[in-house]
Amino acid sequence: MFTTMKFSGSRVVAAPCSRAVGVRVLPRVITMLGFALLTACGGGGDATGPGTGGGGPPVTPVASRIDLSASAVGLGAVGASENVTALVRDGSGNLLSSATVSWSSADITVADVSGSGNTATITARAPGRTTIRATSGAVTQDLAVTVSIIRGITLPASSQVRAGGSMILTPTLDAEQGAATALRWESADPTIANVASGVVTGVSLGTTTIRVSAIGDSRITATTALTVTGPRSVVISNVPEELFLGEDRQFTAVVDVDGNESRAIEWSSGAPSVATVTSSGRVIAIGLGTAIIRVQSTAFTNMKDSVVLQVRVPRFVTVSPSSSTMGLGQTRQLSAQVQAEEGFPSAVSWRSSNPSVAMVASSGLVTAVSQGTATVTAVLNADTTRRGTATINIVPLVRDVEVQPSAVSIAAGDTRQLGVTLTGDPGASQEVTWRTGNPAVATVSATGLVTGVAAGTTMITAVSVSDTTRQSTSLITVRNAPTVTMTPTSLTIEPGEVAYLGASVQADAGVNTSVTWRTSDAAVVTVSGAGQITGIALGSATITAVSVADTTRRASSAITVSSAPGVRSLSVSPAAISLQSSQTVQLVPTVQVTGGASAGVTYRSDNPSVASVNFTGLVTAMANGSATITVASTADPSKTATAAITVSATPTQLATAWTASRLGGALHEDVVSFDGIDANSAFAVNSKGDVFRMVGGVWSLATRGTTFSTQFLAVSATGVSAAVAVGTNGVIARFDGTAWSAMSSGVTQTLNGVHLDGPTSGFAVGAGGVALRLNGGSWSSTTTGSTQTLNSVWVAGSVAVAVGTSGEVLRWNGSTWTRQTSGTSETLYGVTGISGSDVVAVGTFGTVLRFNGTSWSTVNGGNVTADLYSVSGSTANSNRYYIASDNGLYSLNNNSVQLVTTPYAPRLFGTSIDASGNVWTSGQRGSVMRLSGTTWETVNLAPDLIDAWSTATSNAWAVGEFGFIYRWNGSTWSRQSTPTTTTLNAVWGTSTTEAFAGGDDGTMLRWNGSSWTAMSFPSTGSVYGLWGSASNSVYAVTSSGEVLRFNGTSWSIVATSSSALWVVYGSSANDVYAAGENGTTLRFNGTSWNTMNAPTAGTMAGIWSAGPATVLSVGANSSGTGGIAYRHNGTTWSAMSMPVSSVLTSVWGANQNDVYATGETGTILRWNGTSWSSMTSGSTDLLWAVTGAPAGNGGGFAVGYNSTVVAATSTGGFGVAGYRALTTARGMELDPRAGAKLVRGALPTGKARKHRRGR
């Protein structure tokens, strides 16, 4: 069967044959399929001819089927097209070439078809499915068409590639199956990056856009923002152009690699002698010059970087001092030191961070405006990045620190609370730090509570927290356990008789020294709480005194009560009096008898024409002159007493004028600086700031500090005609052998130390790190780089060493100063050397440093904790050094520090070794001592004189510090040898052959007409007052509040008080007064002691009586800032009006109309019976005591500070003959008696000096 095909237009109509079917074939097999179909339908004959054999009539071909070139078409994008070919065949499979074919689309919105003949083009219009039909005649053939599209393309929003590198961009396609996925890539800027098939290659740094689009549908696109970065690299950052020598800087390398690539790097220096670099990149400048610093990646050897570094001289600004603490209104000169390369401008500008607190002038002068803190900056004008600063603190300043008491005695295990008073500006810190000099002796808490540890002495120091240069000390003495002694150990009395036993408890200060009294037989003898015994009946009993603090400690006395008659003693009151003609006075005898003996007396005048006396003892003045009334016992005529009567036309006045001088000579006050020239020549500076000179062994005032508007602080000399003194306000004065003249220093800071190594060479140092050099005839400043206060300097040739606060040690090498490590923060006060490689410095709390030419080391001073002020050394003394301290003199031999035994050991401030090797030391109270060979000699000493007593115009004593006793013989004072160097506070005597002196720590001495000897005394309290009615009835009062009586044989305690007692005086044996602190006043009426306290909380320092109705007392108010005076009329106390407000210290009278009082600043007052008036003393020193001969017949003296003696000139013709002999002549023996116990430690200073032993 043949199939006929007809092509009609675009349709193909085919007649099927039984062997042929319409199939879709792929274009590549169309030809073969067409051939196969023709074969299947009968084979390849011409369509117009018969199928076989060629016979029969012609048949018109009829389309039987249509063969399409594709069975299905898939289009991958809208707009995509594909050509389809249709072959029309007849039933025999013959190709009907003339047949027409028509084409149509079932859904032209999905795909349409166009074309004519047997070929058509199918074009995709939208995604979907449709059918394309080919028609030829009645034959059709359908073709399935599927349109698949890419719906979207996605690329990363941004991408990055390195220049020269490449990367693959992988787009994400949202496509239907069968969609054409061919893509087109393009770069917006091929000069930055190009792209091919998604492979992007970086060309140069920058950004561009990479676009990808579907080839089948250019509307479907995606872009990525591409950044082309640099290649892998390592770069050194934060690189300075230069470093200063000694600086170091951390360099940083920025490593730029990809992902997890190694970032390890290596550092190196091209010039390690100039700059080194650590493995972490820290660069250290160690030498001047240029160095290349390199860094390299360890993974990528072509990754490297380098910088050129210049190392040069450091350029910086230092402000001196770096910090200052100032008070309001004060000024402080700052200085700026600029270090830079040679030729670099060094000018600076000054700025204050807070001018309302501290202003700074263009010169660097700072003025304190208000309290607060400000930073003052010096800016280098040529390089404003270089600047130096100083912190300025404007604070209320502490001006003074005082510890109370200044001396304390306690027992081991006991405690004592110390007080401290800080004076200064309003708001000044009151905080202190407490320190102990020897914790093995005593410890101190943060609140000042002292605890005794073991027997010994040590210093407790209170240091101001806000200003550590402000300090005060208290001398702590720790003593052993108490012992009780009784005096007398036996006594005989009669029934009804009253006597006193004395019990003393020797114990450490602070330990209760009270006792309780017991009698073994109260029917024989009774005893009171004060040790007063009363005979009751004949017999014997034992009286026992038991220590309250330790009842196992006791002492006893055997008492016998008998009735044997006898007269024990006789006294008369008044013992001396001045009268005018016709005046009378009643003499009152006191007779002590036993066994019923008569107490009667008789009276006799040795000059009745001058003074007569009746049988009752009434004396009548008859005519001008003198008379002695003798009172004799009728029972025992050998017992007598006398009363000296003076009759004058006008009342005798002890003093109409006073003349002041010193027993110690010209040099007095503390000697703070000393320089010995030879055995007979020296220079010294005292604490008043005056300079003294010794020539031929005699001291004289060389120049006053006020002459140069300064207070001199130090002196140095190279000979008797070449000396320099320095002081406050930057003052320097020079002595040329004839006169003193000022030298220009160029500074205003205080200069604390000076040392000359030649007449025209030396150094001076002072506050704020100032160091001046004398070279030739002028001084010039040197740069120290220090802001500390420099206290001392030593120089030898081209080497000098200066020391100061906070352990500062500076060394001069001939051109510059360098700071040396001292190893201490203590203040250093003194420095000296034997050579440049053997130098010693000393300072607070026992600090001793030694330099060996290379470094400083601390010398172990053992238990030395005292402040050390000065040091001197010499090859002439076998390289031994001597050190002045609070505790006396020490020697440094090799590295061993030993205490030196000197004649006296107060606080010593100065040491010097002269050209002959003589060792000198100086200190408190004008003390100057010299060691020649092995022998010490006291060259000068001016102790405070604390008490005086006259028995006649030609006999008086003055006592004071160091155990000094001077005696007046009517024309001159001479020093007497004593067995002690303890301070003596009181003296009293009856004649040239009988006297007593009392002092610190229970010291009691007795004069027998030829020598002073120590007495047994039942108290360890300091004796403050002495008085007696006779040599066998002497009273003493102590700091422990005790009243003691000497009965001619022994001392015993007869009364006690809770307050310290300062003075004792009586008008007769039956009218005795003791007074002291807190207004305490006791009176003895001949039988018992009773209180009659004055209405004050102050201290009654002096008391005098003409009888029970006339008692005068003077002293200081409770704060110690002003004087007080009271009068007792026999019934009550009343305050007295005084012409001055000064603290008053003593009172003594010739009679009730001629009374004298002494006090501060040379005060002498006189009471004329009606009012007080001031007298000129000629002295400004504190006067401790005043005295006169009985009845005011001459012998008038007042004594006080610095061996001051003020002598009275009287109306009665009693003057002071030969008073010019008061000054100490060379050769006067000043050394203590051989064997006298040496008392070591600081004497009271400041306010404490105004109170006996600091109370």
UniProtKB/TrEMBL annotation:
Organism: Gemmatimonas phototrophica
Residue ranges of every copy of the BIG2 domain listed in the record: 62-146, 149-224, 230-309, 313-390, 397-474, 480-552, 566-643
Protein name as it appears in the record: BIG2 domain-containing protein
PANTHER family, alphabetized: NUCLEAR PORE MEMBRANE GLYCOPROTEIN 210, NUCLEAR PORE MEMBRANE GLYCOPROTEIN GP210-RELATED
Pfam family, one: Big_2
